[in-house]
Design a protein that fits this description.
Helix content: over 70%
Strand content: under 5%
Keywords: Cell membrane, Membrane, Transmembrane, Transmembrane helix, Transport
InterPro entries: MFS, MFS_dom, MFS_trans_sf, MFS_Transporters, Sugar_transporter_CS
Protein name: MFS transporter
Pfam families: MFS_1
Shape: globular
Subcellular location: Cell membrane
Radius of gyration: 20 Å
Length: 391
């Protein structure tokens, strides 16, 4: 559902709706980010209250109209409205799949589970971005690329109704075997404060997630326009738009499992710094191949970060409030889409796209350094090994 937009919507804004201001053209990402962030928060609370599967099904019901609205949109406001629904769809469905896999995976395999979950999603984003780029090149920006999204929405709803099973009972069982006396008594406000600000690992994870998705909002909204300005074809733009999520998705098959052995913190810190370097290379580049390398590196850095951030949440939180903590983290993380769209759009309007990329690169590097200073290692095996190795 996200892949149908990555190569096509920035070009649709410029070529079909004639939006010349970058800030205006990025309003759909702003709307998506705000609504997805809010839906993430409520997904955690609702999945604890009503169960995981009902929230998953509700998310797919909300997503059904999105492709049709993009196909028939007579004005840009329809595109923005479609992305409000898409944000709700993504916030509910993706948050719940994360929570369900944490329910099912034991503490020693959370990184692997998160890697599989995020790899499945972002490899699909990559494949769809490439496919819709070629469909747009051959058949126009509408309707062909968005028919793929319509098929996805129908499949998602059908699988959620017919195949997916409820997993909340697994979390309840784990809670009976987990000794953490302060966990069950935490209120939602306490969970929000702890995840956002006071607990060093959880707050480090939240800020890193926000900055990570801020640079993805920049890549999603402005990179296709930058590439088109340098004479690349729609087909080439589709290939470049697919490289970031492809490296992102495939890399998580390795990084999530590796963090189960080597710890979460090294992957989070190194991943943020690699993303910053990749953004700098994008700002310096002017050719297809330089950008192909830069986006592959950006995807690799994101792959180091994405599953390990979620696994770290699972490491630190108690099963009775884990789903709500995941919701808070994803509130901050996907709020990064809105932050990235607004910040990069304003800077691009004032000083150009290249300057916007440099600013976001600097913020990404600062985020990695902050995690290096503030975060402790969260993985139980790695913490135990470190204590045994200390004289």
């Amino acid at each position: 559902m996200l892949g149908q937009e990555r190569a096509v919507l920035p070009l649709l804004a410029e070529q079909t709706f004639h939006l010349t201001a970058y800030t205006a053209s990025l309003t759909y990402i702003l709307a998506f980010g705000i609504t997805k962030a809010a839906a993430n928060y409520f997904a955690g609370t609702w999945s604890d209250r009503y169960g995981r599967k009902p929230v998953l099904v509700a998310g797919w019901l909300v997503g059904l109209p999105v492709p049709l609205m993009l196909i028939f949109a007579p004005s840009w406001s329809w595109v923005v409205a479609a992305n409000v629904l898409l944000g709700i769809n993504q916030g509910l469905t993706w948050s719940v799949t994360v929570i369900m896999k944490i329910d099912l995976a034991g503490p020693q395999r959370r990184g692997l589970a998160m890697g599989l979950n995020e790899a499945a999603g972002y490899l699909a984003v990559a494949a769809t971005a490439m496919a819709t780029g070629y469909l747009a090149a051959g058949h126009g920006l509408r309707p062909a690329p968005f028919l793929v999204g319509a098929a996805y929405a129908a499949l998602g709803l059908g699988l959620s109704l017919m195949v997916v099973r409820e997993t909340r009972g697994h979390a309840h069982h784990e809670a009976t075997t987990t000794a953490q006396p302060t966990g069950p008594t935490l209120t939602s406000r306490q969970i929000f404060t702890r995840t956002s600000f006071t607990e060093p690992a959880l707050s480090s994870v939240s800020q890193a997630g926000l900055v990570n998705n801020a640079n993805d909002g920049l890549a999603w909204g402005l990179f296709p326009i930058l590439f088109a300005a340098h004479g690349l074809t729609i087909g080439q733009i589709g290939v470049l738009a697919s490289l970031l999520p492809a490296a992102w998705g495939a890399g998580q098959l390795a990084t999530g499992a590796a963090s189960d052995w080597y710890g979460r913190k090294p992957f989070i810190v190194a991943g943020m710094l690699l993303q910053a370097a990749a953004l700098a290379l994008t700002a310096l580049g002017t050719t297809f191949w330089i950008w192909a390398i830069a986006l592959s590196l950006l995807g690799a850095g994101t792959a180091m970060v994405y599953p390990t951030l979620l696994a770290a949440i699972g490491d630190v939180t108690h099963p009775t409030w884990r789903a709500r903590s995941v919701g808070v983290y994803r509130l901050w993380r996907d709020g990064g889409f809105a932050v990235g769209a607004l910040l990069s759009g304003v800077i691009a309007d004032l000083y150009g796209i290249t300057t916007a990329i440099w600013v976001v690169a600097a913020l990404t590097a600062a985020s990695g350094l902050l995690a290096a200073m503030r975060m402790y290692e969260t993985h139980p095996r790695t913490r135990t090994h470190s204590r045994r190795s200390t004289p």
